[in-house]
Fold these 3 entries.
Entry 1:
Amino acid sequence: MAKKALVVKAKELKTDVAVVKDFEVSIGRIIDETWTEPVGPTPFPSITDLREWDFKLLHRYKPMYMPFCDLCCLCTFGKCDLTQEKRGACGLNMAAQQSRIVLLACCIGAATHLGHARHMVEHVIEKFGRRYPLDVGGVNVQLEAPITRLVCGIRPRTLGDLEDVLDYLEDQVTHLLSATHTGQEGSNLDFESKVFHAGMVDHVALEVADIAQIAAYSFPKADPQAPLVELGYGTIDTHKPVIMVVGHNVISSIGIIDYLKENDLYADVEVTGLCCTAHDTTRYSSRAKIVGPISWQLRFIRSGIPDVIVLDEQCIRADTMLEAKKIKAPVIVTSDKNCQGLQNRTNDPADEIVADLVNGKVPGVLILNSEKAGEVASRTALEIAPKRKKLKIVPSVKGIIEAAKKCKLCNDCTRACPEGLPIPEAMREAATGNVQMLADLYETCVGCGRCESACPNDFSIHSFIIATAGNILKEEKFKIQAGRGAIQDVEIRNVGSPIVLGEIPGVVAFVGCANYPHGGKEVAEMCKEFADRRYIIVLSGCSAMSAAMYKDEEGKTLYEKYPGDFDAGGIVNVGSCVANSHIAGAAIKIANIFAKRNLRANYEEIADYIYNRVGAVGVAWGAMSQKAAAIASGCWRLGVPVIVGPHGSKYRRMLLGRKDNEKDWYVYDARTGDRVYVGPVPEHLFYTVETKEEAIVMVAKLCMRANDTSKGRAIKLTHYIDLHKRLYNTMPDDIHLFVRTGADIPITMKEEILDILEKKGWKEGWIPDPTLLPRLIRKRKE
Amino acid sequence: MSMFEGIPVDVGVIYEGERIRRQDMHVELGGPDQKTKFELVRVKGLDVVEDGKITVVGPDIKDMKEGSSHPFGIYVEVAGKGVEEELEGVIERRIHEYCNFIEGFMHLNQRYDIWLRLHKKSFGKGLNSFNLIAKVLQRLFKSELSFIEKIQITFFTDPKRVKEMYDEALKVYEARDAKARGMKDEEVETFYGCTLCQSFAPTHVCVITPQRYSNCGSISWFDGRASARVDPKGPVFEVQKGELIDSEKGEFSGVNEAAKKKTLGAVNRVWLYTGFGYPHTSCGCFEAVAFYIPEVEGFGIVHRGFKEVTVNGLPFSTLADSTAGGRQVDGFHGISIEYMRSPKFLQADGGWNRVVWMPATVKERVKDFMPKEIADKIATENEAKTVDELKAFLKAQEHPVVQTWKEIPVEVAPEMEEAAVPTIPLPTTAIAAGGFKIILKNAKIHAERLIIRREKEKR
């Protein structure tokens, strides 16, 4: 498929039988229909095409709203108070307003990934051409774009093919966003359905962005043995000039690495990154280093180590310019979405820009050309490093003790802290000369700096924490496996059966941002818990980094200890945020490659398959952004439940099942057409938890699916019960809802459970071939 | 009340993958340091077995020195109305699983090759006697295999007694294997069916016979028999063979009926011993695929673990794709490795004489079960990477299929060229015939879309 595929013009043509003048043939689009799979019911679905499916899910998982703000202030009628059944001036009620805000957030998230994808595709087309093939895994990945195939019904084969996909996605986001205007949609459920649509659109955008960059830049191609790369502040050679890249769009960082390589300077400069750009630099070059997740931005800048800071887009601190000035490090911004008020120097000669930055004539520049940005960043780093001498702004411990004596103990810092850290207590302790409590805050601090803004004394509290924990930071030396990209078709075939039958108890994805309630270590601990229990663990983004920042007694990180295969007990880093698409893609591939369900534009059926059979759960332990909201929404529409940490409640609503409502949990048996009670599996679609322990038990529970065989269900129940007993010290009170037949009972707990079942008045049921879609009930052939 | 009341450590499937390193072990039982070790299950009469009886012959765990290694034997005697001698092997394999459920107790391998270790921590918690382990095993056996009415267990650690029992066990294994290997489909009246895979292959029914393992390679006829007995409502069920319709192809009226019933009429006929016509359906978890290569009129075989492309240029995944999902595809056949060891393997198609290519690793695994004269004539990836190379190899080796090549059909399936931007030739000759002239002026043809479809090959 290609745009403007054919134009033929002829001014004048004469033959014996014909005279042709000003003849023109133009064909807008040539569609390659050599993909013989029949087109399913919903190619390029509109915002209402999958509404019925959404309503099926929303009927089971009714939204429970938790207004983070109970006013609406989006139009000049407002502010409108929506509490206690009140309606706003436009007539909207609380439920609809909350879901409307969720939709807005998801549109922002989807637009962000989409903007990123568009930029990436345009850039690599310019570099490599429209006909450049989309190879994401050689012979091991025939199904290169499962989400795109599923949603759009096309099979993209070249970079150029992705443009049509992007056109569609941009169109959808526009429609979705328009639905949030004052005085339109009035039903919260319709808003929710549009949220699902935004999520689905987001997943396609993720996939487009990642397969384009994998193919064009030869990132690891579905490689379970992707190289181990270095992560952590302590891995950086601070004697060298250091370039710090932050953001999500790796193009400018590639400009830097290419320039350094071409000029034989790569050994002389450290290229270090934070957030997803860092993931993608290590996918491009295993010599690049990751500093850490988003929350390391302030501490890394203030350490004075970076000589040049290069920003692209998304999840970058908006005050980077201010922080960078303090350490006299110039800033280069490279994205049209993030210009920071700087002068556009794209068309100036590199020599001039470098000179201006090195001499401090300007604090930073905007360069919208990745090659030039790469050259300027590299040369500036080399020239400025000797002058800067790693100027840092971290105070001395002595100074901190003196400051602590002046602390008013007003508690404003604690109130401002998202995690409510006991800063005043630590300051009180510091005033006595003991800074250990301050240092201890390091592990759980998310690095937002809100304490400093709140402090009436203007203390740089975050710096106090870093300074007192100085040695911890220096000892951050870890290994992470570079993002491997897609899951191989063969891997899917191997695990398809044990996943669908329930013998691999689940696939758990730890994704998303770093707004953790108790530090990133908990992510690593959860990964270990489930990997040891032979679940499949997949990670991406900041969570993938946090999981690396934990070593066992032998000094090994999870990535060194566990295999990177998509298999029971494997721990798989797929890559940056956009690589999340491979996680959803793996679920889709199970339905298609393994179970032979038609994929093409066949969204409902595939989602129904995944929902009823693939025990996958997403955990966004520190979810913070609108992008995370959009990614989660895409999972819901596919029937994959998502658990978020405590901050996730600020996404304004949960999607909760009611296990006490028996009538909610019936499916069709595709073999017979009977309606069969299957119990609350999975019990919730979107759920927030307070503690790691709660999360672990909920993961085990939400991995159960209607299709589990008895053996599989017994295994899943064993984990659920065992974890519940270990972490809550009690038996779960709902075991009877998950036992369908006697054979489901774990044999090691038989008597105990039989006892419970008897008390609960349990009756034996049967295991259907489950579906929510009546059209999938099979007809008997005669 | 927990069923493991009185057991000082936890028991659960979560301990299954546990490995115990040498420095963490309290004692080691069996394993590479010991020549004599065994585990054996025997079916006995109800009057012989004393339910719950536990005997330890030799030193018990608490009498063993920390870090020591011992010869070891587990001897389990069971009785029950539904327990048959044929099920001994199936019951015996549960020992491995059950031992591993015990926290801090590792069990590897089976039969005369067992290797167990007890973790220091579990010993510290009080797991210091085989009596405790026997209690766990007894409870698990009776809990899962409900046909066992009585069970008694004896542990041997006295070197002399282990040796005596070991010699006896070897004889039992040998007799059991000989019986299993010699068992023919003709000799039984009941086959077993399995529909476990219907959740991803709705029209798939595995037919498990003494000479044809399940496609996944994990259910033998004996396993099927035990499963159907333990869980009559479960996915494994009895199939009465019925009338023999074709002994060469392996068609039975009872199998056809079962397939028809379980696939809701999608599959009405199954030929068990051939890759052509009505081959056994392929699920999604088969261990290997036998695929017909028309150019040489023989079968290639590829297993799941083969990462390269096969001799016809396609990887396992693509070949698997062309038959998976419960379909019967002429010439594409999902199979187990074990089935390759069966005399019925592709019997109707010529058996091993029809196999022309397979990966070296699989060939090695099944070599002993091929006729000797054919083994060297089957190419692997080391001898042939393309069909042309394969042809040359088969010819040079005088593979039996070469005999059938008298008229080699030149049948190369044309791959459709990638849809390139088409060029439409402008009319240089007449657009229409017949004595008139066509004049086109300012003609514009605009097509928003041009769809190029692959024509189905006409037969």
Note: The CA atoms of residues 138 and 476 of chain A lie 36 Å apart.
Entry 2:
Amino acid sequence: MNALDQTVNPVEPFLRTDRMPHIWCPGCGIGTTVNSFARALIESKVDLDTLALVSGIGCTGRVAGYVKLDSFHTTHGRAIPFATGLKMANPKLSVVVYSGDGDLAAIGGNHLIHAARRNIDLKVICVNNLIYAMTGGQSAPTTPGHATTSTNPYGTFEPAFNLPHLLDAAGAVYVARWTTFHVRQLARAMSEAFAKRGFSFIEVISPCPTLYQRRNKMGDGLDTMKYYKDKSKVKHGAPTSEVGLTLNGEIVVGKFVDRDRPDYQSMMRAQYVESLGERYIEAPETECVCD
Amino acid sequence: MIVLLHGLGDQVAKGRVSIVVERCKACGFCVEFCPTHVLALSSAFNSKGYHPPHVVHPEKCSGCDLCGMYCPDFAIYATKIAEPKAQKTAGGDE
């Protein structure tokens, strides 16, 4: 680059630059979400020594390999169980789960709802590209009706998951949805999730130009971003039952749920104090055993 | 590849765009969503065969870094220029 140029890209300190360029396709939105994530880390001044990022398998699962943070790339669908164990063993850690819809809502769907029910203090970022992208464009539980996929060449007919509604019902304390077009709002939502104690869920609608958009004749990544710009409607606090996605329809975005509820560890402590009384001696908080 | 400000006309650049040409995959997000339309895709190729963006209106750059927020390949970013008047004469090289 230029010797005169002393500035660096704000996202650069958070990346393993030796692994760039990444494998994501031209027009894919996952890199854009990483930009917002880096801005949220800068803005919320999170101590990077107490931050862990966990992701599962899939295109979005590659994030764990590309960020220069303490990160773990787990088996398929098991990002949340791994993150739960990490949080239980070392409660001081701020644990972020960064994964795709196929990993979190399909293979790991059970873990997702139960982590929300227990209100484990995790920040879940779900990049939803509406399809199984890495494996060749099969129908996912999030694929909206009538979309053409490699396993449904005549159109999907299964009803799709409305993820904000699912997580709201399961008990998450923070539920928001943005698209990759809303980069600044997304960074703010991530900062808000960092400040929140409990299960936070941020769904990011992202283009998959290679498989989803191409098969459905929706153009490339840029056309999808223009679609997000035109068809997104910000409705903060909208009832989550009304924010389901359709093939070409409106995308309701915004912060849907922001409530307070005791998290798993405080509920556990309260229960033990109640039933054991003085016999319950809390173990001193373990020092970070990372080294 | 860095493009410095030129200070054309009465408009003085408040920001500067830096592009890492070899990382670009020519998705066009930065060109489309730049609020002041500073960028355009160039006709030149990078080594992977993509057309990276280049700066066509450096004087319009506000340094908002929206291009850097959108770029999925971490290939572009903008910075604000601290003292535009002091740097006005230094532009045009490289």
Note: Chain B has one domain: 15-81.
Entry 3:
Amino acid sequence: MALDSKIPKGPLADKWTKHKSNINLVSPANKRLIDVIVVGTGLAGASASATLAELGYNVKTFCFQDSPRRAHSIAAQGGINAAKNYQGDGDSTYRLFYDTIKGGDYRSREANVHRLAEVSTNIIDQCVAQGVPFARDYGGLLDNRSFGGVLVSRTFYAKGQTGQQLLLGAYSAMNRQIGRGKIKMYNRHEMMELVVVDGKARGIIARNLVNGKLERHSAHAVVIASGGYGNVFFLSTNAMGSNVSAAWKIHKKGAHFANPCFTQIHPTCIPVSGEHQSKLTLMSESLRNDGRIWVPKKLEDVKAIREGRLKPTDLKEEDRDYYLERRYPAFGNLVPRDVASRAAKERCDEGYGVNKTGEAVYLDFAAAIQRYGKEQAHVKGLDENDAALVKKLGQDVIRAKYGNLFQMYEKIVDQNPYETPMMIYPAVHYTMGGVWVDYNLMTSIPGCYAIGEANFSDHGANRLGASALMQGLADGYFVLPYTIGDYLADDIRTGTIDTDLPEFEKAEASVKAQMEAFVNNDGTHTVDYYHRKLGKIMWDKCGMSRNTKGLNEAITEIKSLREDFYKNVKVPGSTGEFNPELAKAARVADFLELGELFAKDALERNESCGGHFREESQTPEGEAMRDDENFTYVSAWEFKGEPAKAKLHKEQLDYEEIEVKTRSYK
Amino acid sequence: MMNLTLKIWRQANANAKGKMETYQMQEVSPDMSFLEMMDVLNEELIDKGIDPVAFDHDCREGICGMCSMFINGEAHGPDRLVTTCQLHMRKFKDGDTITIEPFRAKAFPVIKDLTVDRSSFDRIQQAGGFVSVNTSGNTQDANAIPIEKHDADKAFDAAACIGCGACVATCKNASAMLFVSAKVSQYALLPQGKVEATDRVLNMVNQMDEEGFGNCTNTGACEVECPKGISLENIARMNREYLYASLKG
């Protein structure tokens, strides 16, 4: 099947407006006759559920957590971008569009990204109307800050809990519709299979995690909003339950999976402390507004620090290497995430890592504390030369801006970041790749949509900070609710889909067989044993730096690990009870397939772009080197029985508005 | 490294009779989080053919509100302003006995072991925890109504509630007043929430009572155990809102 991105014709800036006017609508009376399933309740899923229900569709929404409010969007810290230009610093829809395309290293679709930039301003208006308590200045107006890879302040925030506040806003919009009976909410339910009838997505098989019962749910369209697959690395900043299963199930039923190797490794996370580690904690990118990143210049100082003989605060300015400021003077500490992560790895690989494992760099707030302290002393008419006073006033400012992050750091690391620099290291955070969708956000299965992090559409090979929240809400509130009507307009006479159809029966039987196979396997190793092994292969061979040899090894190793998993995994308990290990086994089974496709995709893309760094493709200075002639396309993989046989389809990316250039932040 | 004795509440399902079971843990690192210690225990139990302990958890960074353990008689354990997932083993010492129970309340029935059903919280939010504005995006400009920074900050502080239920588990009456008042306060402090203020507080309090939560007797235990530091001021504000709404209604 050929890929048709269905990008509307006409000038870029008019495409979305014209498209909205041209697509089919469903009348209010007919919307009542149409059912839509939404899987996942993060920003994309919750906002889509609420809006579809407001429009009049009957919505059934599923989440595996005990409440829709727990979805992992809740953990997003720093902020959400919008081209409001409230700061008057030259921002515009075009600039947000341009920054996002450039940030994504010219591997995303112009039309989608422009639409995202257009609707970004509506998001802020909408959220404020819902009562989302964004940060404000003393004049009572909304405050902004800066994020990596841009030269304007367009990020709206609510302390370090922006994701929480936006998600609770979307959750409240959902609650209103649940109360009205327009959304039927299924908590602690996991989607196990997509049901396709006559080539169209017509329902899902869900497993009730409390009692293990399999349930058939039918609908006229199915929306996948199940997030990203960062947990294929085992250790990531994702929640423990975050998984690829819903996206992978639709892939196996015919939805193409795009750019699986495009993964974001976030530069500022708390370093790994030991073998027992279960997840990694992010320290928001917003900290790079005020924190300076450095390692010692001399290896003997590194040694002294590791052995506890020297404190970082005692190291003189001239003995510190602020390597981001040195290498990238224009953007300094606010280079995009992929660039910052690779630079940290480069220093640590050279032996300059500052903790016991050698995998950590400093993020230092001392200069910001001084700067803010002096400013406050001046504003309050106090003594600007009183060092203790300045420090206290400066710390108060930092506390007001990032208090919750500093507290989180202190609880985990047991060090006070107001007094000594934070230690940070890159960690897997977000996946730009995902289910391939057309301009309408429909996958290659008619009637099956993918929104938010689950799709691949807007971030190319690298996502800019504070753009994930923007995309999730844009898709859910403002894009999908329009585009889905165009498809559903043909379904107004279809009537309720019967769950007794043989397709439902067959799908349920296959899930039942898989569940029973797990609990009856009588193996020797736990699910986590396999998940950790997979994670290690992924991190070592498909992580921040990739090469042909490593990727080929990864493909072989993952395949044999998967075979071992099916033979020897041990899942306790039964299928008919609350059994978290069984739920985990099913998710890891899917990661073991996705991981192989991931490596295959990384191998095929023999260029460096954004977060995908192929050692074979770099400049003499070690910067990523794209190969536009051969790789200006989206890799969309079609499932053919197993990951090794996946078939590649290429969607060529045409840049009409933007000149494709070497991405430079120097 | 520490050796610990764990006494954990085991209950096969909602209808089963539960009891405390004792497990020994060797070589626990002080850098582990409490839930990582539980992960290690579960790996050992599975190896021994014993059913692992079921507990709720997800984000493991203190924001999703899913983890919910009652540790040594305290919701989320001995540390302050943290959830169970952020509690680290350095808060314990070698040889300690640690008692782990679920969050107990009539409105939080046990599903299995340490996992409880908190959907009563969702139903309270569904009764009125929202502003009735359609998600069309065609609202007024976000900066059209300036909001005093002090009020905006206070609304944020109230909105920081993660809905974990520690307040209920801690309260001797299993009252949900801190949880409900946080949401009521967030909207009461913002102009967007004022339009529906009367119905909101009446409906949410009514639903809270229907779910079987207890009354507030102002002991303040909830505020002490709240991992997000939600203030008792919110309860006072909700009482005022409720009184005003009742008189008006």
Note: Residues 501-631 of chain A form a domain with the Methane Monooxygenase Hydroxylase; Chain G, domain 1 fold (CATH 1.20.58.100).
